[in-house]
Amino acid sequence: MAVTSMIGARIQRREDPKLITGHGNFIDDVNLVNMAHMSVVRSPHAHARIRSIDTSRALASKGVVAVLVAADFKGVILGALPVTNSFVADKKQVPDQFPIAAEEAAYQGEPVAVVIADDRYAADDAAQLVDVDYEPLPAVMDLEKAMAPGSPLVKSDRPDNIGWDAAFPAGDIDAVFAEADFVLKERITQQRMFPTAMETRGCVADYIPYDNRCTLWTSTQVPHFIRLFVGGALGVPESQFRVVSHDVGGGFGAKLRPYPEEYLATAASKICERPVKWIEDRTESLQATTQGRGQIFDVEIAANRDGTLLGLKFTQLLDIGAYHGVFSAFQVVACLLGGGCYEWKAINARSIGVFTNRMSTDPYRGAGRPEATHLVERMVDMVAREIGMDPAEVRRKNFVKEFPFTNNFGLVYDSGDYAKSMDRAMANIDYPALRKRQEELRAKGRYTGIGFSTYVEICGLGPSSATAPAAGIALVESSMVRVHPAGSVTVSVGTHSHGQSHETTFAQIVADTLGVPYDSVEIRHGDTGDTPFGYGTYGSRSLAVGGMAIMQSCHKVVEKAKKLAAHAFEASEDDIVVDQGRYFVRGNPAEAKVLAELAFASYGAGLPEGMEHGLEAVSYFDPPNFVWPFGCHICAVEVDPETGSVTIDRYVAVDDCGNVINPMVVDGQLHGGIAQGISQALFEEVQYDDETGQMLNGTMLDYMVPTMAEMPLFELDRTVTPSPTNELGVKGIGEAGTIASSIAVINAITDALAPFGIKHVEMPARPDRLWSLIKEARG
Amino acid sequence: MTQSVALTINGRRREDTVEPRLLLVHYLREVAGLTGTHIACDTSQCGACTVLIDGEAVKSCSVFAVQAAGRSVTTIEGLAEDGTLHPVQQAFWSEHGLQCGFCTPGFIMAAAYLLKQNPSPTDDEIERGLEGNLCRCTGYANIKKAVRSASNAMNGGSAEVTGQATSVTAASVEAR
Amino acid sequence: MITAPFEYARPGSVDEAQSLLNKFGADAKVIAGGQSLIPLMRLRLSTPTALIDIQGIPGLNQVRRDNGTVEVGALMRHVDIQRNAVLKETLPMLVEMANDVGDNQVRNLGTIGGVIAHGDAAGDYNALALMLDAEIVTNQGTHAARDFYRDIFTTTLAHDEVVTAIRFPVSTGRFAYTKFRRRLYDWAIAGVAVQETGSTWRVGYVNLARTPRRGAAVEQALAGGASAADAAAQCQSDIDPTGDVRATAEYKRHLTQVLTARTLEKATMAA
User: Fold this and answer.
1) Is the model's pLDDT at A311 over the cut of 70?
2) Which residues make Cβ contacts (< 8 Å) with residue B126, sequence separation at least 6?
């Protein structure tokens, strides 16, 4: 194998020149001749019967092409939006969701009509003139009340409000709880989060009448997935339905499903025989784009006084929203990972999916793993406080130490060294000094706290052996590597970068594996017209699965190049040595051919007998296991007890994602991930009126995405424990920061407030909430 | 109900007939064809639409095109000169100050304005100078670093960037 | 989002502005920097039929010092206030407030006249105008700030009245302003301004009632020799906050007392 030179290098991104000069190609930058614009009329009510829709005033408005309601789409869009099994194959009910409401709207923001007009100003004007007669119905907002028999229904055609009720038992939990020295209980809430990609969603649909051919440009993480479902619903075969996604301005999980508007715009293009563009407003986005988290955990932990963790019992109540998200049950993975990086005698989890009159939840950065980390790390801290042991020592005592490790649910952690990352983090923050200072400040009436988060997460979705129960799905990933006659290389992939820097990092892998200049490698993604089928980019899978698919294709190319070299040198293939892209006969390195020469030969005359022309390969990689990043984050805070304000003094993170392709990119992913977790801990929460179901903070004015000033300095470091799961030795890093960080902050705040006897703090730790807790504690 | 509006964009004068309600950002994107300026909120929070009017940073989603009549507008497309990146652009590249790149034009324009007002800002001044811009990818860490780096470069110092490698084929493995 | 359609006119004088306002009728509005108005229009929470853009009217962006007062032209933008040497000397609290209004981009467009005419209780300058007994100068006369703020977003301005300047007493005594918020560029959850004038203290409250409020009870306690903490304890009768997505009313009441004490201490320590 060639000596590594590009893998591991900090190189600047090739994505950037166009983006820093204003030459990106985002969805609203796509414009077609004769393009019309779509504006969506949405239900202002959380729950209402639609008595009638009068479109006459809108139709008369200037520039209007059409005003369409559910009935107009019925024959054009076939079937309902997809719902995957995810972690609950056996759901109690999967109600159909048509992309537009007909008789009953079940969440604020549900489409009820669309206006197609010559430009977006005219479309917005006419949308104001669509007269919908609503009869408001009771809004079901509270999870526990929604579960109670006799509760009003989220939608009137359903038997109840329960989407699933799934048990995950592992071990004899009752026996373990009976033998424990003590049991602690807590309720832990994961508030609803708005993913807030800076680019809102949008699409441009261009249906060609008579040809039954369509191109859909859309801002998505999963172009092939969109083609499969939207094309299917419109009756356009994949071969004639092209989905194109150029630059995507962030996703964070909220762009990994087909959405109603993609169906509606495509159908509208078909109906109106014009290209149709829809661009989501931010205010609209807050209502109409899937949200994250939205769960309540009731947790009990059993432990002994010497700090041994024994058993964990918890119930996850998950707010599905009005309809299943496409991956609604993905967050149930929290049940399987609730044990974190510790050994347990038994774990018993239960997940209940509850419908409410809100927008659907779906994966948001971390998706189930932040929830798992949060609950276990919170409970471990409670155990530490209960027995007066240092939280680091409780962790150390219970860490999984031997790898591979099979957890209570049969998942196999591939590699790790949890104590090593914790030790590194404790050294970096100078833990003993920090504790000493905490003591001194407490004596002066100041409240500082230190919070740990030691996490392990599951990513690299996913091995077909594990995903097969989900309707036989195999979350493999694909690549096509084509070496052109003069030696440059085009690599087409099924993943789709939207900020993750694949164009740079994948090219680094190809350059090393093929032994070609980095600059000669072009990465193509996001266009189903010229990329092999793939499941897209989410779940920190693109490198561990997609990167491996690329490597596999490169290996195939090298194998063929070896044959070409053997033929050229009239030597046996076994005698050909490949060194950094140079092919020569063993013992004669001076006389070598580079890949470009062999590529040229591959397209020419005189090939070995039976060999086809060209130098290219296609691969699909099915990983043997998930990959398991881990690490330790430590946060130091100070709380002002009079105002409840929190200041983050230090934030130290030591993460281990196995081998690193580009450290600059890895650090960048961590920065952003940590920021989102901190923000969940302190700032963000989608708020609704409990009675009416109206969203209360439906603009960016009120939804608290923090600015630069609210973010601490991130002090990063890493350990490197290569993954044995793949040849690159890599794991994922896109979500690790978010998975780790919210609980580091919350544990620090809880530690700071320990002198008041406060045992638990909910997110977001708003100043008024903390002040109320302190006030209550003071009596 | 249209009006004539004449203004200069990136040094070139143009005149168009527009509705008074046409936002400057829509004018730039859809009339002038300059799509580098982005829109990411409705309420003047995010700063993605930041451009310069007569050298001063403004949010072009909160200005009507008619209000900018007679003024000189600079967009992200007009920042680099003669094929040479502005030091702020260069620094965003070197310091990995962007990921998805959607907020980036607004940040770069706001940062260029900040450094013109205050060539050597402290960290606190950088935070205050860029408080009107939101980013969801970077956690702001490398944006702050990029502004510091651009400040150094503009003040004649070294850009102080780690492992700067514009010639990527010569990149070295980072020792850790 | 897209605003509703409107007519647009750019008068060259205040008189012309007034006649345009009369011509276009009750739903016409004056626009200066537009930094509050345009976002509201984009959400279609405000749908004026005409905008009278006064930015081109000469003479409205000056600062005049005169015999104990300083008059700030309505078109002085926040950034102009931040940089103005006369204001730094005669009304430093206004400059401090300007530093914390919105963000650079907003400060480059938004004007003091806009803040005053909008009458928002969250507009920092409104509390300052009220607590310092400023006068709002218009094309039709003057309004005493103490009578100006009637209700939420409601002032005594007539429909065809244009704010031309705000006349503050020169205030060079010790002062401090605390703007409590969760994000740096937000509006205040609670804002507390204190200013020493001669031998007495003035106190103003931002976003703690439907209108800006003066801390009359706190001022009275201070005049009676109360300590900062004791005086702050009187603040509850000066404010009337409501709970919202940012904080509960109860918390805002408590916070105001804490911030009042701290702000007074900060001002007196500034010496």
Assistant:
1) yes
2) A708, B114, B144, B147, B148
